[in-house]
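Objective 1b of the project was to move from sequence-level analysis to a structural picture of ligand recognition. The entry below was assembled by the postdoctoral researcher (A.K.) and checked by the PI before modelling. It contains the amino acid sequence of the target and the SMILES of the bound compound, flavin-adenine dinucleotide.
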Amino acid sequence: MSGVVIVGGSVAGIRTARALREHGYTGSVRVLEAETEVPYDKPPLSKGSVDNDARVPLISPAEGDQLGIELLLDSRVTGLDVEAQRVSLESGEALEYEHLVIATGLTPRKGAYDVAGVHVLRTLADARGLRAALADAERVLVLGAGFIGAEVAALARRHGVAVTLVDPAPVPMARVVGADLGERLSALHRRHGVDTRFGVGVTTLEQYEDGHRARLDDGQVVEADVVVVGIGSEVNVAWLAGSGLGIDDGVVCDGLGAVAGAPGIHAVGDVARWDGVRVEHWTSAVEQAVCVARSIAQPATSTDQDPSGNIPAGHVPVAYVWSDQYDWKIQLVGVRDVSTAPEVVEQAEPFRLAATWRDRAGRVTGGVTVNWPRESVRLRTAAARGGAA
Ligand SMILES: Cc1cc2nc3c(=O)[nH]c(=O)nc-3n(C[C@H](O)[C@H](O)[C@H](O)COP(=O)(O)OP(=O)(O)OC[C@H]3O[C@@H](n4cnc5c(N)ncnc54)[C@H](O)[C@@H]3O)c2cc1C
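Corresponding predicted holo structure:
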């Protein structure tokens, strides 16, 4: 029994492996990844252009060799024996570990729209399939106006494809950005020629000879060559069935990513629920990876500050996420207090906007900015310092 085994070779898993080495861990580090692709980053998959493959590697095999990180691709893990400290693979092999890091992320949900030919977007293969379909398409129907749906709509419009964007919510990304900015986002999509159908759901979706036909609950029918569904995801935990680990919308962890009642096991990234909160964003995955690597490599000092001075070893207090839609770079930091109205400052030329979120006591809890990175940093710093701004 030796070393660290990391299950899942995307950003959370690879950043954990890299951070283990950065923090002086000298034991073996093995990353087990189900896909056959060399690890790549996901945010570019919904951005850029239809013609571009959007592949951004997280590590190359040569770098892996240099750092002593063993990348085991095409290695799907199917089971975990906590007592024996062993994972079993689809291939029939088994690997023992001293430390296990669970980084298996998410799989998109299709829900009631699980109809042949419908696209989702999570993997490089999904992105390649979608880009190929968009290249030949005239009309695309996007179901769900969250981050992925809104970015896919923008990507398709850049390629000149007619887009209908449907969501039962009254505005896109309302839950995260709030109603005011959601309205502005609606207008942004409409300005770029998107046919927005918000506040309506889809009652039926069927495939016909040349495409798909959706019936909306206001009675309208939308036909499209390509349908993309972006309605959320499920955590990849099937392989943990029977392991005895606590699963409750993610792997249940403490505030340092340690799995309750399972010494030597941590979880990071989208699959992990730290201190009751599960976050599906890139920066959180990276920060959790550093935190867990430190706990493993330098257990005695894991409550101190990261040597870089940037990342606290415990739970990361201020969330950060970005989204690129047309010429808007949207950055969100912290959490929105829904009981208070945001303070919005905007400038027309060049357009930029900042909405500051405060709690009832007037403390800054975060905010959203558009094309204003410096203000985003200021809001993040203020929220991290307890809201003085
Ligand atoms: C298209 C797209 C755009 C995004 N854009 C943004 C953005 O702009 N900003 C932002 O903050 N976030 C964005 N995100 C979210 C961000 O990419 C995720 O938060 C991040 O990928 C989470 O990383 P992860 O390693 O936890 O999980 P994942 O990226 O889901 O990786 C999990 C890995 O585990 C592997 N795996 C699963 N099960 C097994 C198994 N049993 N055995 C072995 N391997 C397994 C999978 O193959 C996968 O490689 C985007 C996501 C997508 C899909």
